[in-house]
Batch of 2 targets.
Target 1
Amino acid sequence: MISFLSQAAPPAAAPVVSTTPIIVLAIYLCLLLGLALFSGRLFRGTSKDYFVASHSIGPFMLLMSVFGTTMTAFALVGSTGKTFQAGVGTYGLMASSSGLIHAACFFLIGIKVWAIAKRHGYVTQIQFFRSRFESNGLGYVLFPILVLLVVPYLLIGVIGSYRVIGPLSKGMFPDAFAAYGGSIPSWLTGIIICGVVLSYIFAGGSRAAAWANTFQTLVFMAMGMLAFYLISNKLGGLAAAIEQANPAHLVRTPSELEIVGKAGTSVREIGFPYLTFLTYMFIPLSVGMFPHLFQHWLTAKSAKSFRLTVIAHPLCIAIVWVPCVLIGLWATGVLSDTPGEAWPPIAMKIMGGLPDTSVGAVLSLTLKFLVSNPIIVGLVTAGILAAIMSSLDSQFLCLGTMFTNDIVLHKVGEDRFTDKQVVLIARCFVVAIVLVTYTLSLLLEKQQNVFDLAIWAFSGFAALTALVFAALYWKGATKAGAYACVISVAVSWLYFFIKSGGHEYTVGGVMPVAICFAVGALAMIVVSLFTKKPSDETIRKFFP
Amino acid sequence: MKNKIIIAVFILFAVLHQDFWNWDNSNLVFGFMPSGLAYHAGFSLVAVIFWSLVIKFAWPTELEEWADGKD
């Protein structure tokens, strides 16, 4: 192990750093752009095709685009890092529960939403809720909440790409980027990543997003497997790899691990409290309310297209997460000199220091220590970028779709514009959203807690799931009940968010999402029971 | 009846997900996979079977026809 670490230590003389990983990344981005622009040629020129691909996406592409959208970069690098910090329970906490609950949301919410939206021509969540609860005002209350919850999710993708490319390219361009330590600066990474995504979203809308997501999902699944194979091989096989892992990481019972490192001593809590593990199951409910996923559902050719997504989603999660969790366990041995003894400063920092900003380094550090081949490093980094971009494109498109349909067309009237003008408006909004995201990402890049915001965004969406469930399955759910649900979720969420300072937080071990969800569901039930029921026409429209 | 069985099995899954009996188990399955991970990886595979059966026995055929305007 010591020899790996000494290989990674920077030499005293000016290093000659291979630019091969960046060349591999450039080839990958060109391939992606080529494929996506080709798919843009299939664009039929109508707004329906731009927003929901004319309901033409088949089972395999639906699975890949839905899976790619729900799995952010966290699936590859976060899973490894979180396991490194907290142990084997990470898989149960985040992956197996998601396999069960995501599939339930696709089956119970996705298929029904698809059918209703296809029948009545909705392309956004807000249109659906406005119609179901017979309220324009509800749309105006819900719109800013959904947008504000998507924005941090977008930012962690873009800032995540800065955190990947910056360290990777360190020292590669000493002349061109001397002021940045020879690494590619964030502003340039942002232009490239946002530019590539914008190009294909602008050209082909949701059809291009579906094609690009399919390609990117296959890439990040394959690269995760590649990293797993190479690392296990270097460690002498699967059995030898797990042998050198820290024993405290192999169980879920909380324990304190004292890490004696070269930079001092620190104590890290490993494992998960029971209540946290139990109530974390509410987080995957977020897919029921993600507006970008709602849009992906509507691209399905038929309800049958959902079958593969429902069945294969838990399997796809296992294919990505099991290898990454194992790598995270192995890393507890790889990144320490000797398990339980002296830990190098970087591993100390990840273990005891700044959790959510540095967990992503575990996979790349493990690869760097064990597999120094620059082509492999480039390929695995391409996998990480693929996971980031496969979520970004859907989010950009969905915000553009929402601004166009829920604000402009709703306010001014659809008849005021030709179909071509509607597509143009949507494209202008997509460009504006990309520019705002890019600017915000540069301003907030150094903020440590941007990544903590992700779990809060997920919590907000998950707590709102009671709204969509009641809308679909309870004829008695009323307009006042919907307002009560949204407002009570917003207030309770805001209360816990302020109390936590935007960081990870539990109430006696209970995740705040469980409380916010219960408050929202209760408000919906109680208020609906005592207020005016929806009209018969609405009931007929939504309950076939 | 069919729907009640599905809901009951789903709740059973949620309970099984807690696997409190495995919390402290550090044994390795197949010599390389910690019990806690092997159990939950198996849980994911059983979830695949569960959803396959749900699709087979509780598919909303009438909803699809309604969406296509065949009512």
Target 2
Amino acid sequence: MAQLTSSSIQPARPQQTKPAKRPASWVRIVIYAFLILFVITSVGPLVFTFISSFKTMGDVLAFPPTLIPNPFVWSNYQLIFGNPLFLRWMFNSVVYAGAATLLNMLFSAMAGYALGRMDFPGKNLVFTFTLAVMMIPSAITLIPKFLIVNNFHLANTYWALILPAMAQPFSVFIMVQFMKILPKELEESARIDGATRWRTFYQIILPQVKPALTAVVILTFQGAWNDFQWPLVAMGTQNMYTLPLGLFFFKSTYYTQYNLLLAGSMFNTIPILILFFIFQRYFIEGAVASGVKG
Amino acid sequence: MATQPARPLSTLTDQPGPRLKPAHKAMAKKRSETIAAYLFLAPYLFVLLVFSLFVSIYGIGLSFFRIDMGFTGPTFVGFKNYIQLFSQLANPGLSDFWTSMGNILKFTVFVVIFQTILALVMALLLHSIKRGRGTFRTMFYVPAVTSSVATSLIFLWLYNSEGVINFLLSLVGVHGPDWLNDVFWALPALMLLNVWSTAAMFMIYFLAALQDLPTDVLEAAEVDGAGRFQSFWYITLPLLRPTIFLVVALGTIGAFQMFDQAKFMTNGQPLNSTLTPMLEIYNEAFLNGGFGQAAAMSVILFILIFMVTILQRRFIDTGSRQ
């Protein structure tokens, strides 16, 4: 598994795209037909939801369903933007995802630097624990995590969301894999120039592992932005809900008003999709790297 | 904050006193490296120790206690939580926990089999084309980045008794059920949603593995006159065994802990037909206040996941490591 990681997020990896033989033309047609079918099933529901979020309530629930919104209305979005709680949920989600991402990037890179490039007693123990805890399912940690947070009176605060997410074992694992393979000369020349260890880390090492940093940033952001279970447990009052949790509450309030619900779901979907289309390479390579996360 | 810890330390060692002997110098250097390393590690170690290690031990410990928040302190009850749960096995249909276990077994078997096959098929299709591979891969991956809450909301609408899915079925003359309110169809509806949203992630693993396959073996098979199907069945598939194990194991671990959709879409209903263990653990702890009992359920679920993963390793993965 570790091999899979180190070989698949190499910075500049030659693409080995040589199919053994060229398929016969009718086989190619069948292959493309299936590919297009899968595109429709993958993207179709989201595209159709996006279109439908401009429909009136009657149109959203019409049977048979209509494709084009007629009349085309902005009112669903206007109503959502007019709801102060909804804006607060978006703000909370930005705080959670933003802080978790920045801190996790910094702290896991620091830990990766120590574990990957320094020599000290206890190093193997820490690394072994890192691998071991990646195997622990959240099933076992959910309740004790809540009790700890609750004991320290952090429940229903941003700290409850950010503290457990600010240095994640699988990010550290990715960083170690990357830092390990950098040449030793990098630090030696920095040392001769009189650079301190922190400057060596910050100015010499970090720029060399940008792909790993990007993968960690994206995976952390995606995880926090989409997280439902932990905010559900850790947050108690409506003004502290994150967007997924707010949507859950929204769903029970506007039970049958699917026009509003669909427009609401777009707020949770579109930001992450924009990031995905810009940084898709890192999303996909990061996913392979986190294969060990479990 | 531990953001600038190493500066004073390393400046010290970089300019050692002139009278230090080499041995002392080496030792001092080693000590300063150790201190610097732990300063770099400090924030991570805090999270690792508190939110991974301590929390796991605490979780197992909790399962031996009775805790009702607020009234009395925790009381040690030994294995009583477990005995209570296992005694419910005499009549599993009446026990929420064992009902949820039965549901999740069905759910996991179906989801893991179908998402693994679908992921492999998508990866093979992508691997066999040159033109547009990147674009198709991107499109396929969209469900995997979308939040589970958003997709739950969307499918809640699509699964409506007069929704899009039943409309499509009516085109081929099938009268679809009221998916999420039907005791028989609610769980299959959640299975389908899960296959849809996770298959693409595992497709990526297969695609990475296919690109790393040794081409010389496949070329040799071609020279020997192996057909497309033969070389897939006898060469590609056995070489993919470690990846298949990875996909099946990760899929199983994820499926066993299914929570978001069950909580968001059906809340375990109708008639507990979509109750999953994670949802039951959540309900027991946060609605009934039975933290100890819920912790015991978590431990049982954890052991089950662990044993299934080991079995899978024996049956899928060993063949490739002779």
